[in-house]
Design brief:
This protein has about 200 residues and is of the alpha/beta class. It contains four helices and twelve strands. It has helices at about 20-35, 40-60, 75-85, 155-160; strands at about 65, 90-95, 105, 115, 120-125, 130, 135-140, 140, 150, 165-170, 190-195, 195-199. The strands form four sheets. Strands 1-2-3-6 form a four-stranded mixed beta sheet, with helices on one face. A four-stranded mixed beta sheet has the order 7-10-11-12, with helices on one face. A two-stranded antiparallel ribbon has the order 4-5. β8 and β9 (about 150) form a beta hairpin. α2 (about 40-60) packs parallel to α3. The chain is globular.
Length: about 200
């Protein structure tokens, strides 16, 4: 065969946008997030922390994969500290190799951190653990089908793919809701946590 094999799509699904279109959307959403003033960000982060604590309490969450905020992502570290005080086991994602699912390292708020090769904070004492039963996923944007737009590396897509799937909660400000079509590898999240509620 001279042509590349194609993966069949659901005929009722909208076509995936060109990579360039998705990249332009990503840049627009990152700019919108970066333009938020500090007071608004602090107010919204506080509301999101309260919603996260309530969700974990209602669901009896015993272990949670969290993220260290970067590039203007919502800062939920006060909620992480409160969850740790409640006895919830926390873990941070760790990139061990490219084109692979994320690994996770046990983490205690306040412990020493270092930057990995991608500039992301990870525990200095890397205690690898199994993928937690529930994960928070920072989103550059999200759509009405609860599909996440990330930075384009595919790490979280690969992490969510193996069964059994963890409970997956996207985290984004509500102003980052956008319209975009999903790709074949996209996995709808269970919910999106915003400053105004759970979507």
């Amino acid at each position: 065969m001279n042509s590349k094999p194609r993966i069949p799509r659901d005929p009722g699904a909208p076509p995936a946008p060109p990579t360039k279109e998705k990249e332009q959307l990503r840049l627009r959403l990152l700019a919108a997030r970066g333009a938020l003033d500090a007071a608004t960000r602090a107010l919204w982060d506080g509301a999101m922390c309260a919603r996260l604590l309530a969700w974990c309490a209602d669901g009896g969450v015993a272990e949670l994969g969290v993220y260290w905020p970067l590039r203007g992502e919502p800062d939920l570290r006060p909620a992480y500290a409160a969850l740790h005080a409640r006895g919830v086991r926390l873990a941070l994602p760790v990139v061990l190799e490219k084109a692979a699912p994320l690994a996770f390292a046990s983490w205690t708020p306040g412990e020493a951190m270092v930057r990995d090769g991608m500039g992301v904070a990870v525990p200095a004492a890397r205690r690898l653990t199994a993928r937690p039963a529930a994960l928070l996923l920072p989103c550059v944007g999200y759509n009405g089908a609860r599909l996440r737009l990330g930075y384009g590396g595919g790490y979280y897509d690969r992490t969510l793919a193996p069964a059994p799937r963890p409970a997956s909660i996207g985290v984004a400000y509500s102003c980052l809701a956008a319209e975009f079509a999903g790709a074949g590898h996209d996995i709808a999240l269970d919910a999106i946590l915003t400053e105004s509620g759970m979507v």
